[in-house]
Amino acid sequence: MKPFPVLLTFDLDGETSFEEMHPGIPYWVTQGGYGPRKGVYRILDLLDQYEIKATFCVVGQTAERYPEAVEEIVSRDHELACHGYTHRGYNALEPEEEKEMIIKSRGILEEFYGMTILGHRTPRWRPSQHTHRFLQELGFKWNSDYMGAENSFYNIIDDKKSKLLEIPVAYNLDDWTFFYDWGSTVAETVDVWKIEYDARYKDRTMYCLTCHPQVTGRPSRLLCLEGIIKHIQTFPDVEFMKATDYVNEGYVE
Ligand SMILES: [Zn+2]
Q: Strands 153-157 and 142-143, how do they pair?
């Protein structure tokens, strides 16, 4: 039996998410910038401490603004994945513009990565009806937007099972939900993450956590990440994996 797969994923939005939602308002935009300026380094140190490799979904514009942060992610042997050029959902773009954004952001990240980028997560988790087809045409191996399942599956594109694996995310496994939407405490958040982990481990599905350096990279909130890592590491037959390694391991037929 393969080990239970745990994917820690980090969306490095920088200012871009708030530039979409609250343009020009420093209260918000500076919170976003905290991610690539400070939070990401704190997270990288924690991952090193627990010897975990993870996946960072990086917005192209953020990589241009904070190249040193992206270089640091790569130098510590984590995976880079595309997360748009800006943080605008693809459902708000024209199809040609969407495809250009994917190509542009991949080109920027590959300059840092030195390898082909094989993973993608749509900004705001809002793909268009064309996104999966574009990703398949461009040779991506995985995407990570869907909320309607615990297990991964191959997307259906043009009525056929594709080779683009969808790695599902979850509303209750996202730091943004707890801290920005619900105003949860650190203790409440890590409790939910642990309970969800226990249930998924029992069901032998998978565990994909989505964090944002601007959110979880804050000093006290980092304890959530450390808390769930320590909890997971008490279980036997578990493996923390980069997303593309998970895809290549053949967990999904
Ligand atoms: Zn994002």
A: unpaired
Q: How far is the CA of 210 from the centre of ligand 1 (A)?
A: 10
The domain limits of the chain are 4-248
Encode 69-104: b = buried (16+ Cβ within 10 Å), e = exposed.
Answer: bbebbbeeebbbbbbbbbbbbbeebeeeebbebbeb
In what helix (H) or strand (E) does residue 81 lie, and over which residues does it extend? strand 79-82
Amino acid symbol at 159:
D
Residue 226 CA to residue 43 CA, distance in Å, equals 9
Tell how far the Cα of 10 is from the centroid of ligand 1, in angstroms. Answer: 9
pLDDT tens by residue, 131-184: 999 999 999 999 999 999 999 999 999 999 999 999 999 999 999 999 999 999
What is the C-alpha separation between 32 and 26, in angstroms, rounded?
Answer: 9
Average pLDDT over the chain reads 97
Question: Cα(125) to centroid of ligand 1, in Å?
Answer: 8
SS3 94: coil
Rounded CA gap, 117 and 74, in Å? Answer: 12
d(CA 235, CA 104): 41
Q: How far, in Å, from the CA of 177 to the mean position of ligand 1?
A: 12
Q: What is the dihedral of CA 126, 92, 96, 122, to 10 degrees?
A: -20
Give domain 4-248's CATH superfamily: Glycoside hydrolase/deacetylase (3.20.20.370)
Cα(42) to ligand 1 centroid in Å equals: 19
Specify whether the CB–CB gap between 87 and 124 falls below 8 A. Answer: yes
- At 10, which helix (H) or strand (E)? strand 4-12
